[in-house]
Amino acid sequence: MAYNGGPMTEAMYYVLLALMRPNHGYQLMHSIAEVSNGRVNMGPGTLYGVLSRMQKDGLISLTEEDRRRKTYEITAEGEKALRLEHDRLKAMIEDSRILEGGDEND
Amino acid sequence: MKMTKAVYKLRPNDNWRIGEHESWFADMAAHGFFLKKMGIPFAKFVKGDPKKMRYRIEVNSGDEITSEQKQMYAENGWEYVTSYNLFHVFSSPADLQAPELHTDPAEQAFTIETLDTKLTFSTIITITGMLLLIGMQAAVWFLDETPTLVLIEGSAVFQVIFGLFLLYSTYLSLQAAISIRKLRRNLIEGKPIDHHAPWKKRFQTQIIIGILLTIVMGLIAIIPIFQLAKIDTKTLPESSPDLPFIRLADLENDPDFIREEPVFFNDDVDRGNQYSFNWSPLAPLQYETSEHGFIPGEIQKYGEEYSSSLDTKVYQLRFPSLAEPVISDLIQSRSFQTEREDFIETSHPELDLLITYDKHKTKMVFAHKGNAVMYASYYGHTNIETIIENTVEKIKLISE
Predict the structure, then answer these.
(1) Nearest CB to A46; choose among B71, B78, B107
(2) Cβ of B104 and A25 within 8 Å?
(3) What residues does B292 pair with on adjacent strands?
(4) Coiled coil located at which positions (chain A) (predicted)?
């Protein structure tokens, strides 16, 4: 199923985020853990699945392919999708302000 | 250390039970059998020291697994083991505590999309094929509107069982498609695959069913061969007191009556005076006879010599309940030249069922006693009572 602009899975979002800097598979897992402050520890199966699917959908592309490993980077389309998702998430946070004050009532 | 001793284990064929397979491989490794290759119907293991291992099955969109994927998994402690169809097995020693391959079920759901489509497609093909085949078989079976006769004369038993086999494989195919669709939905909803799914009972049942099916299919394949060995056609002897069919000469009861000179021979059998025997699972004893004779010098109305003929069919059935449908079909098989209301049911103290037809010089008798059915079609001037008497005497030979 090609990406249709709807809400992204967490895995997609973080892979795109981590690929704002070109990176290769193994390093990517660490970058994701890093950008999420250790909250997201993505398994290699999930990562590989996301990478091959997003590559097919044109959200990311291979930069150079040396003999040993492939390096991925985000495409213009991918960045657009990432920013749209970011806006959506931000809007969600703003819409959830009511929860921020909720603690005081307890 | 070299692990060389190969062990082959029967394996179930439902590849789509991913969690069950993973836990089977892990349990085998715990007993010292390490998966090497998945074949049909055996999986190959190599013997080694028992070890706690984790196994994960990856489903890909193609038969191939890229070196990149293997490398990425290997860097995380997962070694590639083997592939079968779209399934790729990876393993990792439990004490390595390698990170779980899939941390996001919703993402994993995408990996079984191709498998899902493939299974759905093949199920549609299987169902269509099955309906076509069953339709064709049914058409052939009911072509002459004598389904019971077709059934007991042999060929239909094969078709029925083959049809059941088709139904069963369609069921398996449907089950696979539905289960994978369900698994995909569960993953989308965030429910991960159970890597420790219990497999023992299910796999054992599956293997037993598989063995039974193989035996049944083998037996079915033997039926036509067995039949060929049993079927034969011979020239009728002059008299046959021990054979369970009535004879033309007994009906005529005239010392001048002689059998017709053989008009044509085939395989050394006089086709005008022959009998055949046949075997089938539902009617282990079957005879079919045909004879012709005349009385030299007995001149008839139009100047021809008197001649008569007799055709009979005899069945010893596996189940007496088949007798009435068989008789009904035998009558149906003569429906071309006759009217149904000319067949009259009468009773006879020594028979379970007696139906007669008596018009002009054509006389027919349909009798059933126990598991035996006899049918005689006579053309000549002997009266129907004589035919019934002869039938009653002969049917005793085979009825139980």
Answers:
(1) B107
(2) no
(3) B309
(4) none
